[in-house]
């Protein structure tokens, strides 16, 4: 009986946490929708003029305004917007005339590809640098890693992008220029996932694959640099904390090698909070690659939102912003759940 009661209690506790998670997620997303909606209503851009033009007759303007529901009370407009957004309906884009969600599905894989590669570079390079900086605290290597991170936070990303294009593309010719793939190779493969590297590799179009690699290399390394600046700094901080713990001292007293103490024991414990750091870095690259995509003419979600904003296409701007915000919120919640699963002390 006691065993059954214990299982029931554990099940109730689990269901309670699931309900709390759903409530937090729904509340956060509703707040995100509200902020996005009301910002879109207070900006000095008239979506009706963007559609009909500033020379349209008054009756055409008024009819379009009624069709868009802009003549209704603001609260009623918000309720309608929430209902439509819940089904993925953000209206039609003025710029492309397509449903906004269709456009987002077409351009988001480009942003996902770029941000994923940048995060991978940041993790592969940033974590070892952070560990070595913590182990060699106060050394030249430590100072180098700290300066590297400081520069990554301080230098504008668009300036680094322009300098990178000038040096590695225009002067040295080591990488391809702006864009995602040359027109010559764009017809050699069939888009399936929307991720060019994956599609060309799966279809065996290796010439197109290497051309895509040449295009993505510079912007991915640029985003990877900003990612490793954050990851290396946080890794150093976590490792300094772990190396001061008693279990590290005990492991050294037992005669374990320094490599084993650092990489198998200290880093393993530091890896738990690092998951949250990596998830936040990934989310930041997904939402913060607007300038990178603009500099490199990368046809991703960031450039889509920028072009839409320049053309007063508020449906596209609000839809893209909401999608990015939703991804950011979901990654934060997932990282929090992983943190709780991997570290029993937080449960």
TrEMBL record:
GO terms for molecular function: dipeptide transmembrane transporter activity. One of its GO terms (cellular component) is plasma membrane. The lineage of its organism: Bacteria, Pseudomonadati, Pseudomonadota, Alphaproteobacteria, Hyphomicrobiales. Its main location: membrane. Keywords: Cell membrane, Membrane, Transmembrane, Transmembrane helix, Transport. It is found in: Cell membrane. Residues 108-339 form the ABC transmembrane type-1 domain. This is ABC-type dipeptide/oligopeptide/nickel transport system, permease component. Belongs to the binding-protein-dependent transport system permease family. It is a multi-pass membrane protein. It holds the Pfam family BPD_transp_1. PANTHER family: D,D-DIPEPTIDE TRANSPORT SYSTEM PERMEASE PROTEIN DDPB-RELATED, DIPEPTIDE TRANSPORT SYSTEM PERMEASE PROTEIN DPPB-RELATED. InterPro entries: BPD_transp_1_N (IPR045621), MetI-like (IPR000515), MetI-like_sf (IPR035906). The keyword Membrane applies. The chain crosses the membrane at residues 21-39, 114-135, 147-170, 212-231, 266-285, 316-339. The keyword Transmembrane helix applies. PROSITE patterns: ABC_TM1 (PS50928).
């Amino acid at each position: 009986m006691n065993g059954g009661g214990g299982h029931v209690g554990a099940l109730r506790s689990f269901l309670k946490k699931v309900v709390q998670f759903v409530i937090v997620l729904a509340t956060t997303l509703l707040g995100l929708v509200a902020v996005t909606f009301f910002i879109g209503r207070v900006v000095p851009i008239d979506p009706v003029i963007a559609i009909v033009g500033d020379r349209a007759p008054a009756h055409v303007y008024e009819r379009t305004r009624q069709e868009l529901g802009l003549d209704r009370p603001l609260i009623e407009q918000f309720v309608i917007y929430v209902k439509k957004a819940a089904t993925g309906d953000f209206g039609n884009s003025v710029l492309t005339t397509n449903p906004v969600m269709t456009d987002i599905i077409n351009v988001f894989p480009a942003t996902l590809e770029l941000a994923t590669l940048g995060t991978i570079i940041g993790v592969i390079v940033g974590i070892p640098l952070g560990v070595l900086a913590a182990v060699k605290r106060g050394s030249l290597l430590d100072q180098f890693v700290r300066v590297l991170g400081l520069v990554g936070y301080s230098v504008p990303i668009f300036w680094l992008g322009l300098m990178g294009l000038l040096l590695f593309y225009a002067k040295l010719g080591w990488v391809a220029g702006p864009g995602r793939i040359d027109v010559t190779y764009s017809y050699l493969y069939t888009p399936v996932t929307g991720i060019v590297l994956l599609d060309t590799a799966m279809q065996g179009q290796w010439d197109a694959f290497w051309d895509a690699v040449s295009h993505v290399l510079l912007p991915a390394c640029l985003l990877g640099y900003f990612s490793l600046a954050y990851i290396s700094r946080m890794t150093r901080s976590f490792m300094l904390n772990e190396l001061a713990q008693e279990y590290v001292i005990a492991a050294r007293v037992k005669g374990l090698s320094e490599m084993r103490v650092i990489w198998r024991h200290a880093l393993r414990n530091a890896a738990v909070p690092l998951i949250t750091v990596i998830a936040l870095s990934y989310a930041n690259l997904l939402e913060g690659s607007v300038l990178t995509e603009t500099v490199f003419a990368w046809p991703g979600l960031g450039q889509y939102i920028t072009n839409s904003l320049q053309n007063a296409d508020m449906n596209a701007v609000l839809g893209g912003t909401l999608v990015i915000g939703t991804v950011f919120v979901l990654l934060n919640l997932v990282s929090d759940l992983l943190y709780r699963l991997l570290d029993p002390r937080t449960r």
